[in-house]
Amino acid sequence: MSNRNQAPLRLHPAPDSSTVELLYRTFGDVLIPLDRLREQYFRNLNEERFFAEINSGRIQLPITRLDNSRKSTKFVHIRHVAALIDTCAYKADEGMPGQSNESTE
């Protein structure tokens, strides 16, 4: 049996539980309003630019709404924010110069 026509499965790593816990302490809920998230972590972007970055996929956060109204508050789930933070931290670790698995003698 061949699975050539099947799309590859892309699973993101699960966020650290400590990252989720710290975010919960900061925001107090599992759904984080986008405006509070922008104020906390993306202060360098104005509201319009922040939404443009999300819509373009440069900031990879799925947006959630609790109802279908266009005016409803937009949220991001706490685990998605935690996964984004952890992924950025792992990428930063990989990019550090001078780190290797070889020991110097």
Automatic annotation (TrEMBL):
InterPro entries cross-referenced by the UniProt entry: Tscrpt_reg_PrtN
Gene name of the record: prtN
A single BP term in Gene Ontology: regulation of DNA-templated transcription
Name of the protein this chain belongs to: Transcriptional regulator prtN
